[in-house]
Amino acid sequence: NFKSIQKVSWCKDDLVASFHIKGIIVLWQVSKIPTNSVVRTVLNTTTSVIPICIYPLSSGKGFVVGDSCGNVSLFSTESDSSDEIYATSVCKKVHAKQHINQIKTFKDGRVISVGNDGCIAECFITNGNILVRGTSIPISGISGVSQMWYGNLSLETLPVIVAGYYGNVFTVIDYASNFELVKFETGGRQRKISHLMSVSPEGNLQFSRQSIAVCLNRKDGRNEVTLYSNLYCKHSKLLHNRAKGVSLHGEPIYDACMFTTAEDVDHVAVVSGSEDCTAKLSFLVNDTVKTSFSLPPQESCIRAVAASRKSCSPISLIAIGGGKLSIDFYLIKDANVPGNSFRGNLIQIYNIGKGGTHDMTNIDHRINAIKALPNPFVDEANASHFVAIGDSNGNVGFFIVQEDRKHERFIIPKYHVTTQDRPVLSLDILLWKNSFLIVVGSTSGDISIWCVAVNQGATLTYNAHKAPIHEFKTHQMGTNTICTSILNNSTSSMNLLLCSAGDDQAISVIELLLSRGSNKEISVTVLSNSVTPEADVSAVKGVHFIGKSKFISVGYGQKMLLWNWSRSKGSQLLSAIGIDVCDVNCLAFCRVRNRALAAAGGEGLEIIEVHENN
User: Fold this and answer.
1) Residue 464's closest CA among 426, 394, 414, 409?
2) Which one of 66, 368, 476, 596 has the lowest number of neighbouring Cβ atoms within 10 Å?
3) Is the torsion defined by CA of 122, 127, 130, 132 positive or negative?
4) Contact criterion met (CB below 8 Å) for 18 and 25
């Protein structure tokens, strides 16, 4: 008398539920003694939808049911009748007309469900057996939630771990920390998938040896089953939120940098540039933004900021680049240095001038990347900074900026290094022997290394090579961010890591050996090249080394990830933490005495402390 069965599942140890079209669930009583199973109860939702999941009430006198249109139905069996039972209450569109994949109940009357809308939804059962809709919370990194696990049911208010799909990628996430436990490509959301996972009372995910199986129906009529094992990577909590999203601008932050304003002083400054055409200088107190004020605005949005300070100097340089290829330079002097007679909170800021190019510009031309380093080839009396820039016209160049404004030319105009075919998105600077090395990433996904040689004669001269010393094809799309780390440095060679990330969601780490021959030409040898595909659920917007081989990354996936690189194993994930700010565009990092702080910038600024030595 029942319509076709769509699914069967165990409801209790001796109770099997069969799900039929037209809103019918049949409960079959199964005896331990081999006898024929008998129909115990028929539940009728009185709708034409397909029931998907069922869970008994903690009192044992009813069930809750989720269906294919996002509805939650409540059934009461207090009369203990074996006849057909109708829903006493229905809460409609709890998951916005999407399938409810799993549902659970608690002693306090809460009903928690997950569905294909990517949310965890909450309902409440009142004393009159009426369902009342509660909150619905989206899960970052999952577009459709298929399952949830709990630890201690009496203590947890939300799931410990959730699993589901992002496109065709099956993902398991620690809900509390937003840490990605499992991620693999299934090849299609409609493929049959089965897994053996459980959660301990303490909330730890547990696997069997062969954890996940995916079945593919081939065109030749055969079935192909792929088994996944050793999926779980135990991690420690190495990242800790210090300041949740702090609003600094009226529009998203495109770039940010962090630096200490003087030695042995806990003044941590943050410079942020935004689409609202302003740059702000903010100061952190106890890892939170305490003071913030705007620098003079530019004509168009600000895309790049950088800071540079020589060790033991109380003077820092700030460079800010934006639309119309405009660059502003500022000097910051911290009067709170040890031994100074003034012990207040005095920070002096000077606008020392502008930089620019000779190109004809319009509002669409902009500086996309800026990096700065103290110039080691001059004495303290002539202190200056090397500032490299990259713009949307594909130009790469640099400035020499003097700290002492008494110099006749304290901003030496840009020396043109190269013009690339594609716009520059990112760059980094390295110092090796008597040369500055500029690592450049473009919108094509390429990376090139350019050399600016410094001639230390009667007067310093800076000579840019006419061709790159090496080029890489690293990413399928734009190279959004680049950072470098020196492993070993000697007079004849330098061993370094070059880390990059892009719109293709991949993180690349290349180990290079730079050496200089008798003809003084620099040669580059690639020792290893490891690529981590799908390192994040969306585009990666920032990477930064925090040690020789450890680095952090952020992106649109709203997570900060801590990685460790080795030549044998490549990049391995150590820890992760969720980021509250949306539209994450940049990553900044600095060390304050023995502490490491990182800042993720987007629709606000979030400060996170990194414990990399734990």
Assistant:
1) 414
2) 476
3) negative
4) yes
